[in-house]
Give the backbone structure.
Amino acid sequence: MTWTLHLGDCLEYLRTLPSGSVDAVVTDPPYAEIDRPYGRLSEVEWHTLMDAVVAQTRRILKPSGSAVFVIQPNSERIGRMRLWVFDFISKYARDWNLVQDLWWWNHTTAPTAHCQEKHGLMRPSLKPCVWFGSPDCYRNQTEILWDQSDSMRDTRLEGRGRVKHPSGQTIDSDKIRATVDRRGGVTPFNVWPISNGDSQNSAGANGHGAGTPFGLCDKLVRYISPPGGIVVDPFCGSGTVGMAAIAAGRTFWGCEKMPEYHAIATRRLKEAEAADGLFAQSTTSPQTPPAK
């Protein structure tokens, strides 16, 4: 496998990639109205940037390819949500296609000002993983099956057969048990509970305060890109998507505009490469795009 990590503007980089060459785009872009070392984007500026990113993403994806954008709603003030996330989802759900609603639940989110007694709101711990692509885009559910719980396994082992629930739905436990045994796992829900609290290996522990957990990147990469496929992240940050791609045996093409984050990502990608015993050809020169 190969990986490349470009230092520079994501749009300039995306324009160098061949049309119809990429199997999946998995990225956690900057958010609107959030102060970061790389600056602050207004809602208008964010939409302008993402309109261009989505256009290039659609161009470089194969017909079977799809893209996931991990974003998070935020508030104008406590009790009044901003709508840029929902506007983005609605716009491209219509103009492109929303394959399915998918959510990441960071169940280790710390309390914020929202949930103080005087405000009475809840912890904002759920992020939409906005999945765009054709209705029949590539996905391999087998890669993300869940282990069934002990209680559910015991219930199915009781052999209850077909049971009609109060909702009117009929469940055949024997058939479900046989399917789980055959497939090696349980059909996942569209909410993925994944902690972002790794104090040693997370993006935060490596100097990037707004990273995505490896567990989420790993599932997304294996789910929507085929073995040996090409995965792109135009907002590479500390390189977690790339690490997941390398670990899964995919080719990774990434871009990061902040030199300090580019350096962190380069180091982490090399470590992931060495840890997995992959002798990939790596390219980190700012002037070297992926081979066409």
Notes: The chain has two domains: 2-145+188-283, 146-187. The longest helix spans residues 43-60. The mean pLDDT is 87. The chain is about 30% helix and 20% strand.
